[in-house]
Fold:
Amino acid sequence: MQRKVTKAIFPVAGMGTRFLPATKSIPKEIMTLVDKPLIQYAIDEARAAGITDFIFVTSRGKSALEDYFDDAPELESSLAAAGKMELLEILRNTNMESGAISYMRQNRPLGLGHAVWCARRLVGDEPFAVLLPDDVISSDKPCLQQMVEAYEETGGCMVAAMEVPQDKTSAYGILDHDNADGNVVSVNAMVEKPKAGTAPSNLAVIGRYILTPRIMNNLGTVKRGAGGEIQLTDAIAAEIGAGRMVSGYKFDGTRFDCGSKAGYLQATVAFGLSRPELREELSCFLKELVATKA
Ligand code: UTP
Structure:
């Protein structure tokens, strides 16, 4: 029986340069898909997986993100006074229990691995999840919940994995893995952004991880990797090097890369169309637009 995963790290200290000038003052994670900020999708997914401790690794200029998780008593009372109970319910669902969230500063953007390492004292000696809010996953069963259920059988480190077209492999961390019939594959090696034609497979790592506390030790010793940054991939690869189990989990669902403009726009359309109250108007608009632009 594996130890239960109750802590999750949300690394949100990146500069979000692909969304400048918006990210000059708005944290990327606050940008909305329909009516919810990206971070809320990640929080809801983590909650569904049984996470009770939410650790944010933030940086300068992210105070809007911290404010988002505060209660809004004035807004709540005016909605209640106006009898807008549905909106009140929506608002209250975003409230976090006191003490459930902690914030840790990453003083310099030294990479995803470094951001995760910044939370080492809060994680302690427990397995933990990492969720990158840029990766929004639409699925019947939330992705992290699928992984937690699989992890209860496998233990070790687990990364979410998704098949990508062969000509896109150089944009991802790619798994060298054993073939398997089910959703879980055993990982032999991980290659960060392989050069065209050299990828060991087309199974890419995306932003959901379940990691053992040893990863924090590895992060403390790994050297700066690709781009001069401390890479989370290198710390996970060190586990494979030490003969420990790392698995890839081929989740059921669709992932949108909301860290890129094209992915964010695609997610906006897909999530808009999935809302019953918006579907018809939006799909008519899209059909007309495509017809006139074709
Ligand atoms: P990205 O590679 O998307 O970088 O980070 P970014 O800074 O957010 O965005 P661009 O590329 O400049 O547009 C992936 C995840 O890792 C976090 C980011 O916040 C994002 O969730 N991250 C990255 C950190 O927390 N700290 C870092 O030093 C780097």
User: Anything to note?
Assistant: The longest strand covers residues 184-192. The pocket of uridine 5'-triphosphate is lined by residues 11-18, 57, 106, 109-112, 114-115, 132-134, 259 (CB under 6 Å).
